[in-house]
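Deliverable D5.2: sample structural annotation.
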Amino acid sequence: MKSSLSHIATDILHFILPRRCIVCGRRLAEGERHLCINCLGSLPRTRFHLSSPNIMEQMFWGRINIQRATALFYYQGEETRTVLHNLKYYDNPDVSRHLGMVMAEEAIESDFFNYIDAIVPVPLHSRKERKRGYNQCKYLAEGLSEVTGIKVIDHEVVRTVNTKTQTHLNKDERWENVQDIFTVNRRSKVIPACRHILIIDDVVTTGSTLISLAKAIEAVNPDVRFSVLSLAFASEYRYAKENDSDSSISS
């Protein structure tokens, strides 16, 4: 009885305040969450989980013990910017959780999640998390965990330095900005025992933040392997590789 009343109340609420797609604003149909099926389907997929090695994995070669790396979509176009802004700035962590589930459902068709012991979302500094109200990467990880069953470790690694935003920094400045900004809690029990950790981020550009995080983990667990999963891939490395490829074809 209570369940039926709750369902009726939800239907009334959605009739009065219809749910809208965060990208196009169209009213969502039954079964759609946050994005309509057209906008979700139009996001430019990388499909890196179906190809290893790939250019995202190459960013980490020689820097950390990387196993696999993939992102759901390329960070290009107004639609992808709108999705990422909703993730961070519109006080709706459920968008992050839902997109974490979408990432998992698409990557789970491959062997990407095999032998992963734990998921570690990139931590926010406590000051920035209080200001925003939540860590979007944590909610991405929770959505991922809901689909895969892999546990999330979100309290054993801490961001000790409140860095300035990376948005307007060049590659060298990005690397310098994130050096030694993470530390593993001295009482950590899970991370030192993990053999394979999946790091979750919202956008990967140079990979500098992820490498800094991985280095902090390696300091307490030198033999650990890493995989990386992000919502978007906006790497300068990608464009450099494509330009090199174009030049070689034209020559």
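Annotation notes: Residues 2-16 form the longest helix (15 residues). The radius of gyration is 19 Å.
The annotation will be released with the project's public dataset once the embargo ends.
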